[in-house]
Design a protein that fits this description.
Structural class: alpha/beta
CATH architecture of the largest domain: 3-Layer(aba) Sandwich
Strand order of the largest sheet: 3-2-1-4-5
Radius of gyration: 20 Å
Number of strands: 11
Oligomer: single chain
Distance between the termini: 39 Å
C-alpha cells in the first residue's frame, strides 16, 4: 500500500499492562508499527500506561505519553497533539474499546481524527458477537445453535434450548476473558453473571457445546481492498474444549 500523503501525524495506542489474552505480543507489534510509521515519515504520538515496554523507550516515538488508557485521557492527548489519525489495532482489546468509545462519543469527528487500521464498522462487526453471527449467516456459514442474552432471564431461556454443557462468551472481550463453560444451572448462572459484567455492552453469546470436536484454524489477513493472504492452517492436537 502506498504512503498516504494526507496524513502527517498518527496517534498509536498501546495495550497497557500485560494480562491474560493481551500479553507482550502487543508490545512487539506496537513497536514494529511505530518504527514502520516513522520510516514512512509520519510523526508518531504514543499513549501507553505501561512504562515497562519497549514501545515506550525514549526516542522510539516522536512523543510518548505514559498516561492512563482511558477515553478521557486519550482525548486530552488528541486535543494537545492534534493527530490526523488514530491507530488502535496494535493495542489489543483495551485500545479497540477506547477507539470505539471515542468514535461513539463523537470525539474523533470533533477533532477531525480518522480511525485507521480498522474502521469502527469493522471493529463492531468483529467484536459484537451478535453482529458477527449475522455476518456469518449472510455468507452461508453454519454456527453452533445458541442465542444472545443481555439479562439472566434471557440467558435461562436460551439454555433451555441449548442444554448443558453451554459455552458463555461475552461481547467485546479478547482471549476468552469473562467466558466459560457451564455444566449445570449453578455454574451457568455464575458464568453468565461474570460475562455480563465483563462485556462493555452487557451482552453474552450462549452456544451449544461442541466440546470434543476436532479443531481446525485458518489464519487469514485481509485488507480493505480485498487482498487476502493465508498465513497458515492449523489442526489442533487437542479437541475442542
Amino acid at each position: 500500500m502506498p504512503r498516504r500523503s494526507d496524513l502527517e501525524s498518527i496517534l498509536v495506542l498501546g495495550s497497557g499492562p500485560i494480562v491474560i489474552g493481551q500479553a507482550c505480543e502487543f508490545d512487539y507489534s506496537g513497536t514494529q508499527a511505530v518504527r514502520a510509521l516513522k520510516e514512512e515519515g509520519y510523526r508518531v504520538v504514543l499513549v501507553n500506561s505501561n512504562p515497562a515496554t519497549i514501545m515506550t523507550d525514549p526516542g522510539l516515538a516522536d512523543r510518548t505519553y505514559i498516561e492512563p488508557l482511558t477515553p478521557d485521557w486519550v482525548e486530552r492527548v488528541i486535543e494537545r497533539e492534534k493527530p490526523d489519525a488514530l491507530l488502535p489495532t496494535m493495542g489489543g482489546q483495551t485500545a479497540l474499546n477506547i477507539a470505539m468509545d471515542l468514535d461513539r462519543d463523537g470525539v474523533l469527528e470533533k477533532h477531525g481524527v480518522e480511525l485507521i487500521g480498522a474502521n469502527a464498522r469493522s471493529i463492531r462487526m468483529a467484536e459484537d458477537r451478535e453482529e458477527f453471527a449475522a455476518a456469518m449467516v449472510r455468507i452461508g456459514l453454519e454456527l453452533p445453535h445458541g442465542g444472545f442474552a443481555r439479562t439472566m432471564d434471557e440467558a435461562m431461556t436460551i439454555v433451555e434450548e441449548t442444554g448443558y454443557p453451554a459455552i458463555i462468551r461475552p461481547s467485546f472481550t479478547l482471549g476468552g476473558t469473562g467466558g466459560g463453560i457451564a455444566y449445570n444451572a449453578d455454574e451457568f448462572k455464575v458464568a453468565v453473571t461474570r460475562g455480563l459484567d465483563t462485556s462493555p455492552i452487557t451482552e453474552v453469546l450462549i452456544d451449544r457445546s461442541v466440546i470434543g470436536w476436532k479443531e481446525y484454524e485458518l489464519e487469514v489477513v485481509r485488507d480493505a481492498s480485498d487482498n487476502v493472504i493465508i498465513v497458515c492452517s492449523i489442526e489442533n492436537f487437542d479437541p475442542m474444549g
